[in-house]
Structures are given as C-alpha cells and as structure tokens.
C-alpha cells in the first residue's frame, strides 16, 4: 500500500515538473532591425496580475523560465519606442517571440536647446556633464559643487558647508557675467545678473545634462556670456514607470529627502513626471541655517514629428543670513563667527518657473523649436537695526517726556522684491550633409518691484488711523527691462579636414529705473556680438581650433541706481581669442587651450559688498585675462582612470586708479597702479579626479582642487588676499543593479575636505585713510573642515 502511495506521489511531482515552461524572445527596432538592449520585458497574468520583469541582453535577447501553463500578457517597452504587448497561451516552451518596437519620437527633448549648445568639433572650450556624472556628485551640496569639477572653476559657500547661498567663478569671472539657461530660458536675474542657486533647491536632481562653455562661446539667450555660459537641460521623460526615493544625511545636521516618479509612456504618446525635495542644514557658520523646499513636474506628449512639454519648477528658501563673512581677527579663535544674533535675520524667497516647450520636425533636416516661459518671484529679507537713524527711514523723531527728541531707535525692517519675468525663445535648425544652419530669436520682459518696510520699532508704531499696527513703507522703486536678441549660426564642413563656424548676434536692451537722486532714467543699448571659428582635423586623433568672439554686457541695477546721470556706469566689451589643440595618444585624451580675453570698461569687483551682501564693481578702462587650460584623461587596465585639468592665467588691469576715503580731510586719497591683478582671479587652478571602479559596480573616487592665492581688491596687496588652498573630497559608491525587490539601489558616501584643510574660498575688504595711514577691514568666508555625507537611493 505504501508503494502505491509513493508511486502516485512521484507521478504527481513529475507531472508538475513537466508543466514548467519557458519563454524566449528577441527585441528589434523596426526602423533598422537592430537589437534593443536593456529593454524591459514584463510578464502578467491574463487578468493583469504581475508575474516577473526581465531585461534584454546586449544582443536583444530575453528569457523567462519556470512558468506553469496558462494565459499571459507579455509587454516590451524601452525609452524612445512605442510600447508593444503580446497575448500568449502557454502550453509548451516558446522560443520564437519577436518584438519589433516602433520608434515613437523623431524629435527628442535635446533639440530644444540644440541651437545654443557648442558643437563637438569645437570642444576645446567646453565641458559636457551627463546625467550619470551629475548623479554621482549630487549627494547633499548645491549644484555649483558639481560645476566646480570643470576647468578653471572655483566654488564658494556662504554657510561653509555647501548648502544655501553658494556660487561659482570661472576663469576668475563672477556669476553676474556667467550666462545660465535652463532649456534655453535665462536663469540670471534680469537686474542683478546673478544666479541664485538657492532659489531652485536640488535642481541637480532634475537635470539631464549640462554644458559649460568657457569664454564667449556661442550665442545664447539672456544676458551675454562674459567669461562663461552654462546650458542646463532638465530631465528627459522616461518611457518606463518608476519611483525613486533618496535620503541623505551629513554633518552639521544636514538632511535631504526627495521622491521622484514617472508614469512611463501612456497611450503611446504621453508621459508625466514629478519630484518633491526638502533640504535642511544648520550650516558650518553659526546660525547659517537653510530650510529649502522644491517641486518639479513635467507633462510631455511625443508625436511622430513633434514634442510638446510643460515644465513647472518651484523653489522656496529660508536661510539665516551669513552674507558679510567673518572678520579677519576672528578667523583663528572663532572661525564660525556670525555677527547676526536676531532670530529672524533671514532671507525668504519663493520662485515659480513655468515653461511650455514645443518642437516640430518638418522632416529629417528641418526642426522648429519654441519655448514660452514665465517666472514669478517674491520674497524679502529681514533685518534688525540697532540705533537706526529715524530720518533715514522717513520716520518722525520721537518726543521724549522731557520734551527732547530721540533721533534713533531699534527697528526691524523687511526689504521686498516682487518680480515677474516672461518671454519667448524660438529657434530653427536646418541640417544638410555639409552644413548646419541655426537661427533664433528671443524676447524677454521683466518687471521688478523693490520696496522696504519697517515692521517694528521700540519707539514707533505705524501711523495708521485708530492706532492699529501696520508696516510702514519707506522706499519703493520699480525697474522695467525689455531684452531681445536675434542670431544666426552656420557650421560648415568645408572639407574632410576643415570645419568652419560663424555666429552673428544682435541684442537690444531697454531698461527703465530711478537713479540715486530719484530721476527716472531709461538706458538703451544695441550690442552686436560676432563669433567665428575654424576647426582643422589633422587626422582622426588630432585637431586644432581657432576661435574669435566678441561680447558686450550692460551694468546691473545697483550700479545704475547708486549712480547719477553724470556718474552712470558704462557697458563693458570683450574680445575673446581661443586656440585649442586636441590629441588622442593611445589611451590618453589631451586638450590644450590658450585664451586671451581683452576688455574695455570691464566691471571688476572692488572687494566691497553692498547692503545685501552682493559684490560692488567698478569700470576699469583696459584689462585682460590670458591663460592656458590643459586637460588630460585616461582609463587604465584594472579599473583605474584619471581626469586632470590645470588652468594658469594672468588677469591684469592696466593704469588702475583706486580711491579711498580720507576721514581727516573728508576727501578721497588716490592710489595709481600701472598694472595690478584683478581681484578674485587666481593664477593657478588645478583639479583632478582619480577613480577606481570594479565590474561589480563599486567605485572609489578622489576629487582634488588647488586654488592659488586671490586678492580681495585690485591693489595686489598680500595684506588683502585669500590664501591658496588644496582640498580633497573622497567618494565611495556602490550600485546594486536590478535586484528582485528594486530596480536599482545606490549607496554613496563622501568625506568632504578629507585632510581637514582650514581655508576660505571668498572674502571682502573695506579700506580707508585715517591719520595718514591706510586701514583695511577684511572679512572671510571660511569653509567647513573635514565633514561627511551618506546617501541611500532606491528605484522601483
């Protein structure tokens, strides 16, 4: 009897085993019948219950095993193709499945900014950063940290830990003359020309690629590139549904949490994506806290010849002020000193960006791109002012009980900015075998309402009927700016060895404002900016680039408003000559680029800061920046690679006159210099990345940066300087690919400032003449010593 039971059981087991089948197939592109690698294959039951997900190999093949008999739905989808599915009644092994995926987009997201990006034959003067490179460094710190890995770039952070107000200089040029665009839309503030990265927290998490063009580069939208331009492309839509969770923690109680999600392709045309992010940090400097929030969303429709995309980006920031730096005499005993103690000494600002992008490919040669945009910004910073002069605020003197008058009081005020920026950016691209034509135009309109209010005073209440409390507005001004440009470019393949480039841009400006004595003033400019380039290919491994470009740049609002008609600042002009040589030697990529940027009326930093911590500049008649950039890259056997760059330059003002106030004589004291270094322009900047990686997705990377000394003003004095520094950051990354429960799992860690270097990356200096002697008051922005960050990222 036992033998009978055993035989029946064995038969059942064998029958069950024999009912296990497999599905094997191939995925091809219907356009050229090439295999589609890494294509997602999902298997569901007939009623929709998920069973399994696999991916095609490099040859386009996939296999799913151990399947019982039954009815299934098999689906294949990959970015850039229409989803395809197949119903299967599985009663035996199937090894003949073939998917032919149809491409769904002739137009890709990238064409929107194609006309303003530099072309690869002219790559000696630009650096491209792709999504993977950006992702590896986007742990806790702001986006300028990633940009600082490029040649000649120097990063600084007010709070000292890389979160909050941060900035970047390239070739010694400050942010107000670095043109930044997002999808071709200007990001620079229309009045200050600055880029406030803090207004779009965690922007790096929503970026697909960035291109940094050094020098004048090619024509772009917004304020002119006067030393560099940064073109940012936001994320491209994923054809596969996903959700991505990121959580990071670091020193100084720094947290970042974000979630990103995408619908995948819907009805073969639509995708929807979004992101929410929150970053908080106490900062390295005392009370230099940051509370940053952001949201990002896109809705995209892919047609066979068109692309329609709507993007929303929102940022909200509250940062405690650390604008004025640490006094020199506090650096040794109290590096984290912050003069502000008032609990609400904060900057508060919210910014909303809307972009509607449309691209249409009439055929494979001709494409039209258009972007409508609108940016709304509003916010204030709050100040506590002890013993403030009431007259300065338009307030009456306070009558004491003894009939005397009090002329000062402790006040709290808020300085507001309420601005609107909108416009149109449009371009066409026409491609033939021997040439490519680009033409574009843009028109942007900006209004900025500036107003200041007293919200509290120890002897004052707002003069409102009934004695009720209300803010008192003591200042109001409105700036209106119209900015338009039109350009045309041609890239021409003259022969197999010679490629030519020409770019002509006409920019027209109209700015309406009130000057220092209250006069309504209108400034009008017409700038013509030509650029020409020649690329000579000696062979497949070496090429020579010769480039000339001219650019012009208008002054900022503060420079206009703080002047009178007779002392108005002048527009600055620059001629840029670049000569670059690229050579491939075995496994090495070597690039050498010489540049000469010659200026007329350059607005250089004086070292002083205004009342909101922004740099003060002045015109100098003749100046230049000349240098050489060397880049070397190589991958070694065994998983090692190196990427190094050196920038050596001389930045000089000719025949410079410095004015210092003489308190004893109530006059200006004059210093004359035949030649003097330009402030904040280091002679030598060195950067390198030494990386070791294994096939199991483990990486170690050492990022190094050396910056030589910089002067705080234009006197070239070692009494007013930033000392040189050498900083190293050590990254560790591990990437788990396509696990059973998750698609991707990334663990990253970094030790910033590995060797605990004590340094300052920025500063300010104020001078005067007292009792016949020059006195200098120097302030510095110390950066954090050794600190760390850890990040966990999970993708489903």
Quick summary of this structure?
With about 800 residues, the protein is mainly beta. Residues about 5-15 have low confidence and may be disordered.
Notes on the structure:
This protein has 796 residues and is mainly beta. The chain has a 22-stranded antiparallel barrel. The chain has a five-stranded mixed sheet with strand order 8-13-14-11-12. Strand 33 (615-635) and strand 34 form a beta hairpin.
Radius of gyration: 30 Å
Would you count the extended β strands for me? 44
By secondary-structure content and strand pairing, the structural class works out as: mainly beta
Distance between the termini: 53 Å
β-strand percent reads over 45%
Give the CA-based shape: globular
Low-confidence parts: 5-17
What is the count of DSSP helices, taking H or I runs of 4+ residues?
A: 4
Residue share in helix: under 10%
Q: Largest sheet, if any?
A: 22 strands, antiparallel, barrel
Mean pLDDT: 89
What does the secondary structure layout of this molecule look like, with pairings?
Blueprint (H helix, E strand, L loop, with lengths): L1 H17 L1 E10 L10 E6 L4 E6 L5 E8 L1 E8 L6 E7 L3 E8 L24 E5 H7 L5 H5 L5 E5 L8 E5 L7 E5 L2 E2 L20 E9 L11 E8 L7 E9 L3 E9 L7 E12 L8 E13 L3 E15 L5 E2 L18 E16 L4 E24 L8 E2 L5 E2 L1 E24 L3 E23 L14 E22 L4 E17 L5 E20 L2 E12 L3 H5 L10 E14 L2 E22 L5 E21 L4 E23 L4 E11 L6 E10 L4 E10 L2 E2 L9 E2 L2 E13 L6 E9 L7 E11 L2 E10 L4 E9 L1
Parallel strand pairs: 1-7, 11-14
Antiparallel strand pairs: 1-4, 2-3, 2-5, 5-6, 8-13, 9-10, 11-12, 13-14, 15-16, 15-44, 16-17, 17-18, 18-19, 19-21, 20-43, 21-22, 22-25, 23-24, 25-26, 26-27, 27-28, 28-29, 29-30, 30-31, 31-32, 32-33, 33-34, 34-35, 34-36, 36-37, 37-40, 38-39, 40-41, 41-44, 42-43
